[in-house]
Amino acid sequence: MVFPGTQTLPLFASQATGAFARRGLAVEMKPAPNSEEQRRGLAEGRYQIVHGAADQCVALVDAGTDAIIVAGGDNGFNHLFVQPDISDLGELRGRTLVADVANTGWSFVLYDILNRHGLKRGDYTIHEAGAPFRRFEAMRDDKAMAAAVLNPPFAIHARRAGLKDMGPVAAQVGAYLGTVPYVLRGWAAANAAVLSAYLAACIEGLRWILDPANKARAASLVAEQLSVPADIAAEILNVATDATNGLAKDADFDLEGLKTVLRLRASYDGREPPAPDRYFDLSYHRAARATL
Question: Tens place of pLDDT for every residue, the chain, 292 residues?
């Protein structure tokens, strides 16, 4: 299960170039309506591998489900958008803000940014809209929805719809581990060869996306898979391939980014952040890279 967008370009490439098929893998990508369904579906065994915010895996583990992050991915590519009448984030006091759900990763990022601008949790209302496309539509269609965190292609749609881009959230919160693949630890142990083959195919697709020689074909793939015009597809690809803030090379894992995830969740809960080690196992990623 995935949230289709910039973060899923390696998966699209793995499908299109046959990287999954060459390893005997039949992969069905199911779009996630929201993070709760993604977490619940994994915990219940309805999905074997999910790609979502690292914070979702943290939430599962903290709730007693033995899940693990098995590779890195990106910093989320997220920007904070507000309605055009807002010139300063302090003006969000008393307004309604749009989130996936109130107690998940990008919401914690939003709370942290607003706290830096003098706004506490009770100074605004959260409207839970679900996936990024629903957050964009909520802001576009209802001017009372004052702010949301969005990533491409919805960040691009938001700019073109006249919403105001307040900049990348990573510039304010620092290193952040965004979308990652995560699984149940028991499933991983029982299916180690399958998981390593899957990650190897993902890395192969990622390398294809990042290779400048494939730029034209990659842009066409983006346009097809995300149902966007060629100019937006090109912009999405530029975001994904950015040398500094794009997709992590070979899905490398950002430990400092995970520490930020843990710090923000712990701050929301009023506790000290836990040690990060229990939330990830990179042995399958290492095994995957060894085959490439």
Answer: 999 999 999 999 999 999 999 999 999 999 988 888 999 999 999 999 999 999 999 999 999 999 999 999 999 999 999 999 999 999 999 999 999 888 888 899 999 999 999 999 999 999 999 888 999 999 999 999 999 999 999 999 999 999 999 999 988 999 999 999 999 999 999 999 999 999 999 999 999 999 999 999 999 999 999 999 999 999 999 999 999 899 999 999 999 999 999 999 999 888 999 999 999 999 999 999 999 9
109, amino acid identity? V
Distance separating alpha carbons of residues 84 and 284, to the nearest angstrom? 46
Domains of the chain: 6-75+176-290 (3.40.190.10), 79-173 (3.40.190.10)
Distance CA 53, CA 57 (A): 7
Q: What is the pTM of this model?
A: 0.91
Q: How far apart are CA 149 and CA 132, in angstroms?
A: 8
Provide φ and ψ at 75, rounded to 5°: -100, 10
